[in-house]
Amino acid sequence: xxxxxxxxxxxxxxxxxxxxxxxxxxxxxxWHVRAAVVLAFGAVIVAVVLRAVADPxxxxxxxxxxxxxxxxxxxxxxxxxxxxxxxxxxxxxxADALGGTVPEAWPSFRERLAxxxxxxxxxxxxxxxxxxxxxxxxxxxxxxxxxGGVADALLAIVGGxxxxxxxxxxxxxxxxxxxxxxxxxxxxxxxx
Length: 192
Prior knowledge:
Elements: H1 10-32, H2 34-61, H3 65-115, H4 117-131, H5 134-165, H6 167-176, H7 183-191
Helix pairs in contact: 2-3, 2-5, 3-4
């Protein structure tokens, strides 16, 4: 009497176990390279935006692809710099106001934390973070993270320009990474 249980042979069990481990390993690998995946995704987005501007320029004006792309890069950079110039002074003014408000509000915030059961844990964590290197280390961490963010943005922009400059080359390379029987499907997905 088997009690409704199915018998699984050893080969099927091993195959399923290996598939589960492979999927888990793939997720672990993607977790460790998530920053590079996000940068690659950002570069693709930049390339799509650049091509969306350069392709109509090429079609309407008859400019060469390279010239249309260069004009797209310059025009988008000018638009971003113009927006930074227009709104930059307001952002600086808001940051100055925040810098003046935070020290005044800090004692009130600490009092509210003391009244809350979760607040004691937050207070403990914050005091531990400040005691590790003091406020100077905290400011240094913020500056390093900001610098890293700027560097990541520049990498995504440069990668996007490269992808936009020769999209067929990178598309062929990506297709060659796929199994032969799936290339047509992946190519169709990339076109869409």
